[in-house]
Design goal:
By secondary structure, this protein is an all-alpha fold. It has 2 domains: 16-63, no CATH class; 66-117, no CATH class. Helix content is 74%, strand content 0%. It has 7 helices and no strands. The chain has helices at 10-14, 18-28, 33-46, 49-62, 68-79, 83-99, 103-116. Helix 2 packs antiparallel against helix 3 and helix 4 (49-62) packs antiparallel against helix 5. The longest helix is centred in the C-terminal third of the chain and has 17 residues, at 83-99.
Length: 117
Amino acid sequence: MPSRRATPPLNQDMATSRIDIFEQMLVADPANTAVLFGLSKEYEKAGNDAKLIETLERYLAAADDEGNAYGMLAAAYRRTKQDDIARATYQRGLDAASAHGHPGMAEEYREILENEF
């Protein structure tokens, strides 16, 4: 009779969420900005604005973002009723998008600043 090796239940492997995976990756490489950005996207999907803000602030302190992260961060600040910080963050995003040659994104942020604040 062939021997049967014990294997972990399939559900155990599947229980690890994408957020857990990104967090484990950060333990191994805390300065990895790609992992920070990926983790922030997962927090955004999960609706966890507090962790999204924390992670994007950490990301932006370390990365030369071209504008997208600023828009995500500003939206999270608006959802948490921090409109002054949101306004300043959209402005930073507008500046970054302009500097990196993203006129469409810059215009989007300019319109938000003009029409919603």
